[in-house]
## 1
Amino acid sequence: MEPFELGTWLGRVQAFGLVANQTLAAQAQCLRTIRETEAYKSVCATWEEFCLQYVGLPRRRVDELIEKLEEFGETYFRLSEIVRISPETYRQIAQKVVDGSIEIGGELVPIVPENAPRIRSAVARMRSELKQARHEADIHSTPSISHLMARVDSIYEEMTRQAGRPLITDQQKAQLRGLTAYTTERMARVSKLVDE
């Protein structure tokens, strides 16, 4: 890429930066073009140096912007102009985002500033529902005390069988002693946590 073209792309990046989030997607597109064409090499030796000197952001932050654009497209940036939304949350609600709109109560609502209050409220509700669903999943995936006791009993029985074998070698005995000491130490830690 010629230096003149790089200057044009840099000008776009800086202009978009002045308008903040409203053109963050366009800014990310310009930065991606500069990175992919390696146009930055006409003014800096490395991409990292270019990001700091010409964009004013660390390379990691610039790469994150480009990654968000590549993974989510422009709609993510439009939504983030209206409501703060992490990539993790966006991934979880992405199925409700269709062609620049977000599904709210069965209706596709365009992601535009005029709909900001409604979108913010809906995203807050979706976050709450996701949090509740994660909490319920955690409860159901956490083993009960009786289940844990059955597992401990099973391990105890297997260790007892190993120790009582008639042809157990000295090395196996030493390994079982080590395992017993290890288990005792771990159980003491659990006991201490319970007592705190």
## 2
Amino acid sequence: MGSSALKLRANWQKHGGANAAKAEHDFLEVFENAFKNTNYKIRSKPKEFTKIYTKVKLSPKVLNEIYNPPEGIDKHGISPDYAIDNVKTGKTLYVEVKRQDGWVENKPRKAGRGNAHERSCKYFTPGLLAILREKGKITNDALPFWTVFQGDITRDPCRVREITCWYAGYAAHFFFWRDSKNPNPILDHFAKKLSHLLD
């Protein structure tokens, strides 16, 4: 295990011992504590993309064919759940955390019918990839985002296969956080597979 993984784990364990009675840990809490005294910081609901769609240029022909509100549109964009910044390099990785039901023991197959995982696929679109890469300074050989799945979806035999297929070639960019009582696997995943993108 590399030094960054050990530092993240040590930071968490220092905090986690004092909060061991808590049944679940949330993503923000885990990473806020793990990032103490490091070059990383985590931001909740980053605002840098809340107007990106307002800047999309449409042709005069299209503008004549659609509704154009008299007051204009001043806010139309996206807000990822989190942003992980390396304050030293100025690089950023954007994060979506999706909690969803799924088809597991003692549940019918229709328990896996949610579509939160499908909605997260907007980040794969060429336009958003380019915008996220430019803002986060992430190179084209990696995705500029990380999706973390929680809940029964992480054990659903259909949804796990779908997600694994969608991220083919980019397995580092998704994580099934099956046991949120244990932060070590998610911290190890970030440290070993993603932190180098921010160096």
